[in-house]
Specification:
The protein is an alpha+beta fold.
Length: 774
């Protein structure tokens, strides 16, 4: 047996039979109620991608045109049947001669067929046809299209081809990117729609790399293509055009031009676009355009977005959803949800999050036909909300880190009575814990969510629609009470630049008030949302905060916000102020503070010691060290050049090196390596495909020449994150030895003081591996 698939509404099971024998393959349908098996056809071809129509007994499948044993064949026919629960099901075949099918394209197996709701249409995937292999004429021995055989050079004279790559500066996707995405590129398809009754194909997609979507009802489709905007795609400022396609005729019209943020409505009638300030809408039936938010007394752009961009994103990165029949769209400002008619005629703020500094966002209910819960924006075909039913909302207090759920009741979202009613929001649960994962049973009004905190492992709770009297149904770690555990606290502080920020302070187990303890500072970006994350101590988690608190360290996770062209200085201003605040509180010993981070956090753990001496020791995993050379680096795993990520991504440098060389120098660790007074432990995998480990060896060589205290750990065969257990445990234990020496005054092993020669390396690795678990 090959594939199988159950109908979602009947007892029918479709089976793609694969026997490995000539003419032994086929498709069968088994009725589990009656025990009846019906054969829908047999051949020597391969049958794949079984697809039932939802709530129906219609089935589609792909059949290879070449025998199943022929791995070279790519073209497929599409077979479809209607009414398989009846005595005479309708049968349809999409073959090469079907009207509308271009000779240059063929159906391939990489896209499963999809049915329209009414069963008239089937969506399929096309790709350019593979060139046919040359065939030899049996009478003359000539190869079609070529010179006579006797005029050909002997195959032995064929030159040996070089192992060659050609990288050109005009490449839209650099050679490494093309290599890394070769398989996925080979699976891309052009969307087409097969009309079964008319036996005709309409091609929708024109660009294999474009995003294509069939709108509700399948009368229209949209294709978003970035083809006209090569420079923006190459260097982190992407734009696209949105084309609307008539599914019946294939006629195309460009409706939106040079946009970054655009969405379709649930009912398929509207396009919504955001220009960095406001939303506009476009009615696909009339062509009318409307301003939706320019006159409202709030801000929909995320003005706190601290990454350089020419177009600010909207809060929530797009609409929160639609009411049924496209009656209204839900849009987000910083705290609240607005319900707005798509022509802009009615707009109402349906939540009151601003008044309490609580962010409200819409969550989706479970739908088994869609594979479960999905956060908004995950799928293009999310259905509209029923205006007569409650809509569940997530709650988040950014300054308190409280979380929970509420629900928007029908009268507030345009239910009975129509018009715009006063919003009614019921708060259901809201606690100083991490609450999430709300799910609804598919056939009962029963809901489930999870709750966790730093000192409370995640457990599942079950409740009714109002989430009251929730019943805990799991106990993840019943032994927790047997162990000493730290606690988490949210601490307010102001950066040296005057920005109000927060940090998470994790106290060591058995901490006594007034005691000053050694402290490890872990850095990245905004870390205060991690306050309620539970983590069991583990040596395989080499940056395990709980394990550090069990070792007697306080752990500080400060928030960092960034200014363009000054990521290092921004981090310095935030972290140094956060450390000073904890010292002021009497928790940390200022002489025993360590710093640690990985990747972008590793950059900070390398940069800060070159600009300040407040740390007794630092540990940097896979850090960026040279702000000149790294701009030209490549993320080898995805094959992507660093440049766009550098200017408009996490590095936030905004411009290339030659436009502001001083900014690159003042934020580069390596440019002040000679002033570093903090002992630095650095770790890299020598197969790191994100941060080239040459960044580590380069800094190591500079530090060595400058006479600075540094140890470089190189984990062989490891990527950006270590996956081998032995390497994970070894790194975890060396971190503890490093901080144990520099923050606690413990005796230093030889690898810290003197290094380890090659012929003693195995003994050293065995020493650490044999230590009692930490």
């Amino acid at each position: 047996m090959g594939e199988f698939a159950w109908s979602d509404s009947t007892s029918l099971l479709a089976i793609a039979v694969s026997t490995g024998k000539e003419d032994g393959n086929g498709v069968q349908v088994y009725d589990a109620d009656s025990g009846r098996i019906q054969s829908l056809g047999t051949s020597g071809s391969a049958y794949t991608q079984l697809a039932w129509r939802q709530a129906a007994t219609d089935l589609a499948v792909l059949r290879s045109r070449e025998p199943a044993s022929d791995e070279e064949g790519t073209a497929h026919d599409v077979l479809a049947w209607r009414g398989l629960d009846g005595e005479a099901p309708g049968e349809f075949t999409l073959a090469a001669e079907t009207a509308g099918a271009a000779d240059s394209l063929e159906v391939v197996r990489h896209a499963a067929p999809r049915w329209s709701d009414d069963g008239r249409l089937v969506a399929i995937g096309l790709r350019p046809a593979e060139p046919e292999e040359e065939t030899e004429d049996e009478e003359t021995g000539d190869t079609e299209g070529d010179a006579p055989q006797d005029a050909k050079a002997d195959e032995d004279d064929e030159p040996e081809l070089p192992g060659l790559q050609i990288w050109h500066s005009s490449d839209r996707r650099i050679f490494a990117r093309q290599q890394a995405s070769k398989t996925s590129d080979g699976h891309r398809t052009l969307l087409a729609v097969w009309n079964l009754d008319e036996d005709r194909i309409t091609q929708i997609g024109t660009d294999l790399r474009a995003s294509v979507e069939l709108l509700e009802g399948w009368t229209r489709a949209v294709e978003e293509t970035a083809e006209p905007y090569a420079w923006g795609e190459m260097f982190g400022r992407p734009y696209s055009d949105t084309w609307v396609v008539d599914v019946a005729t294939g006629e195309r019209e460009r409706m939106l031009e040079r946009v970054r943020y655009a969405w379709t409505s649930a009912g398929g009638r509207w396009l919504i676009a955001f220009d960095g300030s406001h939303y506009t809408s476009l009615d696909l039936e009339t062509g009318a355009r409307y301003e939706l938010t320019s006159g409202l007394p709030t801000v929909f752009a995320d003005t706190a977005y601290d990454t350089p961009t020419d177009v600010l994103p909207p809060h929530g990165f797009g609409p929160g959803g639609w009411l049924e029949a496209d009656e209204a769209v839900f849009l987000y400002d910083e705290h609240d949800i607005w319900r707005i008619a798509p022509d802009g005629s009615d707009a109402v703020r349906v939540t009151r999050g601003l008044e309490e500094d609580v962010t409200h966002r819409i969550v989706r209910e479970f739908d088994p036909s869609r594979g479960g819960f999905g956060s908004l924006g995950d799928e293009d075909d999310e259905p509209g909300f029923d205006p007569t039913k409650p809509i569940y909302l997530s709650l988040y207090g950014e300054r308190t880190e409280k979380r929970g759920y509420a629900r928007l009741m029908p009268a507030a979202n345009g239910g009975e009575g129509g018009g715009v009613a006063e919003p009614t929001v019921e708060r259901l649960v809201y606690e100083d814990k991490r609450i999430g994962g709300l799910m609804k049973a598919d056939s009962a009004d029963v809901y489930m969510f999870n709750v966790q905190a730093f000192d409370d492992p995640p457990d599942l709770f079950v409740a009714g629609p109002d989430l009251s009297d929730a019943r805990q149904v799991t106990e993840m770690n019943p032994f927790m009470g047997e162990y000493a555990w730290g606690r988490a606290e949210l601490v307010d502080f102001a950066s040296e630049g005057g920005r109000d920020l927060q940090a998470v302070l994790l106290y060591p187990a058995n901490y006594e008030a007034g005691e000053r303890v050694p402290m490890i500072v872990y850095t990245y970006e905004m870390l205060s949302p991690r306050i309620h994350l539970f983590s069991a101590p583990s040596e395989r988690g080499y940056y395990n905060f709980t394990a550090w608190t069990q070792q007697g360290y306080a752990v500080l996770l400060p928030d960092i916000v960034y200014r363009a062209r000054d990521p290092g200085i921004s981090a310095l201003e935030s972290v140094r102020a956060a450390v000073a605040r904890i010292v002021e509180l009497g928790v940390a010993d200022a002489a025993r503070v360590g710093l640690i981070g990985h990747s972008w956090g590793g950059y900070q753990a390398t940069y800060l010691p070159t600009r300040t001496d407040i740390f007794a020791a630092s540990v940097a995993g896979a850090p960026l060290t040279d702000f000149v050379s790294f701009m030209g680096a490549i993320h080898w795993n995805p094959g992507m050049p660093e440049v766009d990520h550098w200017e408009t991504g996490q590095a936030r440098m905004e411009v290339p090196f030659w436009d502001d060389p001083e900014a690159h120098r003042r934020n580069s660790p390596i440019h002040k390596v000679h002033e570093m007074e903090t002992p630095l432990l650095m770790a890299f995998g020598n197969e790191d495909g994100v941060v080239d480990w040459d960044q580590g060896t380069e800094f190591y060589n500079f530090a060595r020449r400058a006479g600075k205290q540094m140890v470089l750990l190189v984990c062989e065969g490891e990527d950006h994150g270590f996956r081998q257990e032995a390497n994970q445990v070894d790194y975890h234990r060396r971190i503890l030895e490093w901080f144990g020496h520099y923050l606690k005054g413990e005796p230093a092993p030889g690898w810290i003081t003197d290094g380890v020669p090659l012929d003693e390396l195995e003994d050293e690795a065995r020493r650490v591996a044999s230590k009692k678990g930490s």
